[in-house]
């Protein structure tokens, strides 16, 4: 419940402040957001499984974001930033799908 | 989605297998842990929501570019480059025009001054403007009415030929179209009757004018031959106030 409140608060904050993304952050923010989404779905699934651990969630959240940003950064340095971004998004998307499927099974028993 | 597909992408690292680790702590510490973990989780969720909205917003702003292919982007860039070039050349043209105009102002200013100077000189020459300066005053005494039009005309022409810029006879301005008429004793200039003694005022180099009049067989001799007398005086400052009538 608390994380959902936090999410809502974050959304409202973003809508109210409406900040512009700094230029240096622009390549990394979308990937970081997708990585964070992956962590959140994983955490949600773990909670439904009854094995949620905040420590693991926090670490996976942060490391997901950092690693995703790092991969994009590395890709930018190597000249394949766009492709690596796609790769990261695909991998994270698959994981999100898997977690979503597990959540669905928990919620709908199907 | 099949069950197999779901397990394939099981996020192992996000599924806490070590969930029992905090369980070893005593109940009080566990409660504390729960609060902290709740706060941290909420904070992370907040960050996610914030970043999500910000990213969506910034993506909306750049919407019209994201769908473009590389060729489109290159074309857009080319267009922008061409536009920039056109604007730059336009700017150059404008700057040049400004320079020309400001340069032309000083040019036309000096041209205007030159034109005014010339207009004044011409005005003096054709008699539309009063003149003053060094010159010669010739007084012809003609008690017997012997001075003919030819003598007076000679005098005027000699003066003009010697460089007189402005000539006046008895208050009548003499210009290129002036004529001398009448009969001896009743001379007229431009139809205005003259009265003896005839006073000729000429603005010009005084010495040249006097030499021109005094040359042997010249005007002074002619006047003397007719029985009249003439006195010639140089002056540094003479005024010809009369102007030609009727413009």
From TrEMBL, chain A:
<feature type="transmembrane region" description="Helical">
    <location>
        <begin position="80"/>
        <end position="103"/>
    </location>
</feature>
<dbReference type="InterPro" id="IPR009709">
    <property type="entry name" value="DUF1290"/>
</dbReference>
<dbReference type="Pfam" id="PF06947">
    <property type="entry name" value="DUF1290"/>
</dbReference>
<protein>
    <submittedName>
        <fullName>Small basic protein</fullName>
    </submittedName>
</protein>
<comment type="similarity">
    <text>Belongs to the sbp family.</text>
</comment>
<keyword id="KW-0472">Membrane</keyword>
<keyword id="KW-1003">Cell membrane</keyword>
<feature type="transmembrane region" description="Helical">
    <location>
        <begin position="27"/>
        <end position="44"/>
    </location>
</feature>
<dbReference type="GO" id="GO:0005886">
    <property type="term" value="C:plasma membrane"/>
</dbReference>
<keyword id="KW-0812">Transmembrane</keyword>
<feature type="transmembrane region" description="Helical">
    <location>
        <begin position="56"/>
        <end position="74"/>
    </location>
</feature>
<keyword id="KW-1133">Transmembrane helix</keyword>
């Amino acid at each position: 419940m608390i994380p959902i409140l936090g999410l809502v608060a974050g959304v409202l904050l973003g809508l109210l402040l409406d900040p512009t993304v700094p230029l240096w952050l622009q390549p990394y923010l979308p990937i970081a957001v997708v990585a964070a989404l992956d962590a959140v779905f994983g955490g949600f699934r773990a909670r439904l499984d009854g094995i949620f651990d905040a420590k693991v969630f926090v670490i996976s959240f942060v490391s997901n974001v950092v690693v995703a940003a790092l991969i994009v950064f590395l890709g930018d340095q190597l000249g394949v930033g766009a492709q690596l971004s796609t790769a990261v998004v695909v991998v994270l998307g698959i994981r999100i799908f898997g977690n979503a499927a597990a959540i669905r099974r928990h919620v709908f028993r199907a | 989605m099949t069950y197999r597909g779901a397990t394939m992408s099981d996020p192992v690292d996000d599924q806490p297998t070590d969930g029992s680790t905090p369980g070893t702590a005593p109940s009080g510490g566990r409660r504390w842990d729960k609060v902290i973990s709740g706060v941290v989780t909420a904070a992370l969720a907040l960050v996610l929501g914030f970043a999500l909205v910000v990213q969506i917003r910034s993506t909306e702003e750049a919407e019209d570019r994201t769908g473009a292919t590389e060729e489109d982007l290159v074309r857009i860039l080319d267009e922008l480059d061409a536009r920039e070039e056109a604007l730059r050349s336009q700017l150059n043209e404008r700057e040049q025009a400004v320079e020309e105009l400001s340069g032309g102002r000083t040019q036309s200013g000096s041209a205007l001054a030159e034109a005014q100077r010339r207009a004044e000189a011409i005005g003096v020459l054709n008699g539309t403007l009063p003149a003053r300066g060094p010159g010669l005053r010739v007084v012809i005494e003609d008690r017997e009415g012997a001075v003919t039009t030819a003598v007076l005309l000679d005098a005027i022409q000699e003066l003009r030929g010697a460089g007189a810029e402005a000539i006046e006879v008895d208050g009548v301005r003499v210009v290129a179209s002036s004529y001398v008429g009448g009969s001896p004793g009743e001379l007229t200039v431009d139809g205005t009757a003259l009265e003896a003694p005839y006073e000729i005022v000429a603005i010009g180099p005084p010495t040249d004018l006097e030499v021109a009049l005094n040359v042997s067989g010249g005007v002074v001799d002619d006047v003397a031959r007719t029985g009249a007398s003439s006195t010639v005086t140089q002056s540094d400052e003479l005024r010809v106030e009369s102007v030609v009538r009727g413009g």
